[in-house]
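Please, structure for the following, as tokens.
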Amino acid sequence: MEALIAITIGVLVATSVYLMLARNVLRFIFGLVLISNAANLIIFASGRLTVGAPPLIPVGADGPVGDVANALPQALVLTAIVIGFGLFAFALVLMFRAYSTLGTLYSDDMRIAEPRTEDKT
């Protein structure tokens, strides 16, 4: 199971890096979402992957009995999912505003502060 998760994380990271290297802002945003999901999988896998063993403590015990998953990474991933969704929504609105103002999604054409100078030689 861990090997499958590791391969999935590798594919997500590779795809996100490929998308983030594109000059299109929309592809960059999708790459950002994919790398966020890869980071969430890494955190989730760090808490141990067990099937059918919830992290519950029986009455009268000091800790969970047996080999169970850690609940802290699961809580961190839930928080990261909410933050990632908020970042994605903000980035989409920012991209839409940039497109409506500039008329393009390519980062090379979004040069308001530093316009290109034409060589006169």
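The chain has three helices and no strands. The domain at 2-51+70-119 is CATH 1.10.287.3510 (Helix Hairpins).
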